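Supplementary Methods S3. Complex input for the EPU-bound model.
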Amino acid sequence: MEKIVIKGGRALHGRVEVSGMKNAAVGVILSTILIDGVTVLENLPAISDVTLSLQILSSMGAVVEQIDPTTYQIDTRNVKPGTAPLEMVRKMRASYYVIGAELGRFHQSKVGCPGGCDFGIRPIDQHIKCFEALGAAVHVTKHYVEAQAPDGIRGDQIYFDSVSVGATMNGIIAAALADGTTVIENAAREPHVVDLANFLNTCGARITGAGTDVIKIKGVKRLHGCTYAIIPDMIEAATYMIAAAATGGTLEICNVIPKHLESVSAKLEEMGVQIEELDDSVIVAPADRLRRVNIKTLPYPGFPTDVHPQMSVLLCLANGISHVSEGVWDNRFRYVEELRRMGADIEVNGKVATITGCEKLSCAKVRAVDLRAGAAMIIAALAAEGKTEIDDIYHIQRGYDNIVGKLEKVGADIRMVTIPDE
Ligand code: EPU
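Predicted complex, serialized as structure tokens:
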């Protein structure tokens, strides 16, 4: 078991390099099941969700080879459907992409029910609705999702009842090799949806409209391999922007697409934080006094739900009372109890948190209850006086590439400690 120990109170200064985006990487990696060829993926983040995605592919018969720390070659010519190990797919939400990819290429799929962070109920009804529209019969048992399309995958019109990143990406994956044209309406517009479409188009797919709420996929007969670099992780970038603001430091966050960060930059500026956008970096400089703001999380281009816990930490340090309203997940407030241990004054009522700012947070022993909650604990610890210990950091390792090393390089007193298993 490992934990992170932070002695807080130091302002961060310097440059942080942002890695490839987790939620694009896992989708792109698992979509290679569609490909009858060899793919080289660059700018993959060194995180456990990527390792797990690659292990799932290997278990299915793919040949995966690491070329350098961020580049992998994946030969998916001989993958077999229905072979993704249950214990692996259960560890990760994104394993639902295996269903879309198996259906697309083999017209049949059997995959364990996906796992992931606990935000209350996480249905996959929109994914299933999409597979059924494309001609599959889908059957969900206690542990597995099984789907068969004996007559093949046929293009159709799909209207999602709610905006879902995963269902949109799965729809694109399942329809890429379909017979005919698929139109997805009320599609998610996140940058990772665009990245997946760009990747598949480089492999020969014919997808248009990604980044808008109507996506058109003209099915092709076969996808070939290619070399493709994953886009930078906007959530990782936002996490470092907030860490800079919370510690009163100045950071240049490098290797980013500033446009993807606009909703976060706008809120930080509203709080008094200074933001300078360059071509592929943003510079964050301190506010004289952090001002209160209200936030509502929404699908892209709204304020990202995956930045909600980190932003709540900053609001704990702001002058006055702020409200954070969660517009995507039913329950994303499990971090609140941990933050309260550090002296935060937060009340949750339904899907709204009311945060009363304070001068300083204090150190404590806390847990990373999920991935972004863990990132929030790190930010809180960096800003707090004294030594904070964060347990259950495997959640953080699922999505942050070398967060300890990156923060240490910009002046944080942070280390990873291995505790012998009992
Ligand atoms: N929803 C349904 N039915 C579905 C699918 C989703 O009702 O079939 C609902 C969900 O319950 C939720 C909302 O729609 O209320 C949005 O869910 P979405 O499908 O967009 O989420 P996801 O695809 O499961 C991805 C990210 C999450 C991120 C959300 C929202 C991956 C692997 N995960 O999840 O990332 O919070 O989109 O942007 O891409 C994270 O990185 O920390 C993380 C949790």
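The chain has a mean pLDDT of 96. The chain has 14 helices and 23 strands.
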